[in-house]
Amino acid sequence: MSTRTRLAHWFGLIRTRLTLWIITILAVGLLVFIGTTLIIARQLLNNFGEKRLQQSVSSLSVALAQEPGLSPTLVQSQLNAFSSSEIFLQYQDRQGKPIASSTNLGRKVFPLAPLRPAIAAGRFASLTIDRTPFLLYGQAIVVKGQVQGYIIAASASAGDSESWIFTLMYSGVCVMLTLVAVLVWLLVRRTLRPLEQLAESASHIAQTRDHALRVQMQGRPDEINSLARTINGMLHALEEAYQHVQQVNDLQRRFLADASHELRTPLTIMLSSLELMKKEEGRDPEFQTNALENISTEAERMARLTTRLLLLARTDARAPFAPQPLLIVDIISEAYRQGCPSHRKIAMQCQGLETLEDAVVSGNADYLKQVFLILLENACKYTPDGGQVTIIGERKERELVVTVADTGIGIAQDDVPRLFERFYRAPNASIQPGMGLGLSIALSIVEQHNGTIKVESTLGQGSRFTISLPLLNE
Ligand code: ADP
């Protein structure tokens, strides 16, 4: 990573930005506060110093004007009396020659010439004498209308100590801000650590593609914890969706394998029959007829299989159909007519269908007819000649119930749970041709019509398939 990229990354971090923001706001606030305080303090100190200078000069002028002609020694003692460690006093004659000075001034001489305009105007003046800045105030001593001399008072200007205080304070502020920045940085880093851990475990999940993993949560009920909970919820939903897709994929794979196997069997029979016919070259007409019958039977089986596969694909896709109000007896009657081949010696009966005379269901007539056809075809197929198939109609409060009962081979209890699986056939069913698709199609259609399908059977005695469908307008 280049230095530039590293810097951009560093400035992009929340903790860096947060620290910079806090420090900027703190620095601006502190600087404004300190600056304002210092300006006000300087103003107050200046006013106070000026007042003291003025007072010393006025008191001395009054004293000297009352007793003109005092000896320099006496004047000096007066000056000493009014001076202090910060106030220096000097008495000068009209030409600016010092007559007496307060002892703390030593041999320094205040230059009168540059002070004259300030003295005349009663103003303060700032002068640097021997590289020391002074604030000066002077006043003329007038006796009987004549100027006798000048009293000049001075105090060391605050400028120097002020700038020192400023430097000290600003350096203090800089040190404090640096310390605060480090503390804020550490604190923000500590606060954001769980967020980093969250990102780490999320990226671990993404890398391992282990959908069962979850991000870790801490005990505290804070915002990060609630984010972790939301992410875990999302992961759970994703895991479920993934598992569902896997299941659908498995189902499709199995369906494809089964379907191709089922289609392959009749095709192989047809091809081998054709091969044999070619070899025979029409020498044996009986063989020819048998082979053609074989081919035709297998072709019919393939046609039935493809029709059922198509139906299954359509019901699987849950292709929406516009539901129509349907008279269920009409659909049952049509299926009844086609359900059992005429050559079979089976007694067909109907019971209680009159109770369904005006029963209306909402659905698709072709689909529902397929359901009854499948049940009737199975009942006839798995019932030996001389047996009986009965269709029983019953009307309940909010639903109608149709049962197709037979006295056929029946189904072993172990096989019952698997009957609705695609291509499943009970071992005792092998005496009859079949593909094991009918019941799974029937179940899919009945479920699409919000109904249920139930099986009761006793091996060797017969079976009952019962369908319940919700009635319309009731
Ligand atoms: P197929 O009849 O083509 O084998 P189905 O899906 O219609 O396929 O039926 C699945 C299996 O259920 C049958 O193979 C058979 O074992 C069993 N079965 C269905 N109906 C009956 C019935 N009326 N009597 C006995 N067994 C039945």
Note the topology:
Layout: H1 3-12, H2 14-66, H3 72-82, E1 87-92, E2 98-101, H4 116-121, E3 125-129, E4 132-143, E5 146-156, H5 159-208, H6 223-280, H7 285-316, E6 324-327, H8 328-339, E7 347-351, E8 360-363, H9 365-381, E9 388-395, E10 399-406, H10 438-448, E11 452-458, E12 462-470
Parallel strand pairs: 7-9
Antiparallel strand pairs: 1-2, 1-5, 3-4, 4-5, 6-8, 9-10, 10-12, 11-12
Helix pairs in contact: 2-3, 2-5, 6-7, 7-10, 8-9, 9-10
Bound molecules: adenosine-5'-diphosphate (ADP).
Adenosine-5'-diphosphate (ADP) binds at residues 374, 378-379, 382, 406, 408-411, 419, 425-426, 429, 434-439, 463.
Architecture of the domain at 3-163, according to CATH?
2-Layer Sandwich
Beta content comes to 15-25%
Taking the sheet with the most strands, its summary is: 5 strands, antiparallel
Shape, please? rod-shaped
Mean pLDDT: 87
* CATH domain topology of the domain at 3-163: Beta-Lactamase
Identify the notable features of this structure and list them briefly.
single chain; alpha+beta; Beta-Lactamase; Heat Shock Protein 90; five-stranded mixed β-sheet; 10 helices; rod-shaped; binds adenosine-5'-diphosphate; HisK_dim/P_dom; phosphoprotein; transferase
